[in-house]
Design goal:
Length: 409
């Protein structure tokens, strides 16, 4: 497209890509990959997108070169001559935050993120080394001690600092494109509108300008998949002024929009019985066909409803755990992970690697949770992620052992 007016990649060759690093070394390949995103060939575009997810966004990590690619990605997303623009917007979202489950259900705590980076910058290296050594010494068993020793052996404060700064730099680079993303809310293509609405929800520092831009999407006439993502982002951005629109969706006929309105209202600390009713129903049986519509948590509406319930004070609403456990029993495989983690957090609090006390010494809610987890099928237990999650709370990480712990034989 370089021979046409308004080239979205103007200035691409002015960047010294060879001096920038990504997951595999110098980022000299990035310019050609960005050009390929504008190709007429679908296979070329797909290959370029796959490679960009592997080098400037490698398994959630972002690098020095990542932020430099962002302005060009945003320009491509805004150019109507470019195809697959919704995919480019979703890449921008991934570049900003990594995997979104780390920020749900409450959204990005950008103040805490920035303060954490500043603490890293001002930390005394010797004091940090002593802190790490103390962390190793506090391991509760030999296996945990060995794991912590391995982490200490490879710990490099300078490298950790570079990595942290690259991630925040990538976030801020995407934040700078927020005006472009707001413009995409009016794009003729619903999939682009939905991707933009989803992405805008991760920038609370821009909420004052984004919430008014989301308002036109919060009407019954808007495509449900677009409205659903806009509704959730309105909640993540603390859009209290949009509560009248959210309430209208909560009592509407569209099950997907009703569910997303309940999620957003709970984020705004509105936990009236009608909100809980919708969340509990979604935890047990999410709206049909919702997965392609909602980008949050990869379309796992049951998991999203459950982690939303987990963030609500149980003492005020003692029925919450039952709904969460019902949702867990109806989940399987990776889709069960967010729900399982929410349940563990809800009944045990923060993870602790110390083995739990005997089953009979657990509280009744804890016993119910452990029994439900132990009874999950092999399609869930076979995943190492699930086993590691249980270990983090001191539970047996093998199905047979967990069942025995819960007295299930």
């Amino acid at each position: 497209m370089s021979d046409r007016k308004g080239d979205p990649l103007a200035g691409l060759d002015d960047v010294d890509w060879a001096s920038l690093q990504h997951a595999y070394g110098p980022a000299e390949d990035v310019p050609d990959l960005l050009r390929a995103l504008a190709s007429e060939s679908a296979s070329e575009r797909d290959k370029a997108m796959h490679e960009l997810y592997g080098n400037i966004f490698h398994q959630g990590s972002r690098y020095e070169a990542t932020a430099h690619a962002v302005p060009f990605l945003a320009a491509l997303a805004a150019d109507p001559r470019v195809q697959d623009r919704a995919d480019i917007v979703r890449l921008l979202s991934a570049i900003a935050i990594g995997y979104d489950e780390a920020y749900l259900p409450n959204g990005v705590d950008i103040t805490g993120w920035r303060e954490g980076i500043e603490r890293m910058r001002t930390a005394d290296p010797d004091e940090e080394s002593r802190r790490m050594e103390q962390w190793v010494a506090e391991a509760t068993d030999e296996g945990e001690r060995r794991v912590r020793e391995m982490r200490l052996a490879v710990y490099d404060p300078d490298q950790s600092m570079r990595h942290a700064e690259a991630e925040l730099g990538a976030y801020d680079a995407v934040r700078a494109t927020v005006p472009t993303l707001r413009g995409l809310l009016g794009d003729p293509a619903p999939e682009i509108q939905a991707a933009a609405a989803y992405t805008l929800g991760w920038f609370p520092e821009e909420a004052a300008g984004t919430l008014p831009a989301l308002r036109p999407l919060l009407t019954p006439e808007v495509v449900p998949g677009v409205a659903a993502n806009a509704i959730i982002s309105a909640g993540l951005l603390a859009g209290h002024d949009l509560l009248p629109q959210l309430r209208a969706f909560l009592t509407g006929e569209d099950a997907l929009l009703c569910c997303t309105a309940a999620i957003a209202m709970a984020r705004l600390e509105i936990t009236a019985p009608e909100v809980l009713d919708v969340l509990e129903e979604a935890a047990a049986q999410p709206p049909e066909g919702s997965a392609p519509e909602i980008h949050h948590l990869y379309g796992n509406v049951r998991g999203y409803a459950t982690i939303t319930l987990a963030a609500i004070e149980e003492r005020a609403h003692p029925r919450i755990l039952g709904a969460m456990l019902k949702g867990l029993t109806l989940s399987s495989g990776p889709d069960a992970f967010p729900t399982a983690e929410a349940v563990l957090q809800h009944v045990f609090g923060k993870p602790g690697s110390a083995p739990l006390p005997p089953y009979e010494d657990l509280t009744e809610p804890q016993q119910r949770a452990v029994r439900t987890l132990a009874e999950m099928g092999n399609d869930t237990w076979r995943w190492g992620n699930f086993q590691l999650m249980l270990s983090a709370w001191g539970l047996p990480s093998q199905r047979a052992e967990c069942r025995a712990y819960a007295g299930l034989g």
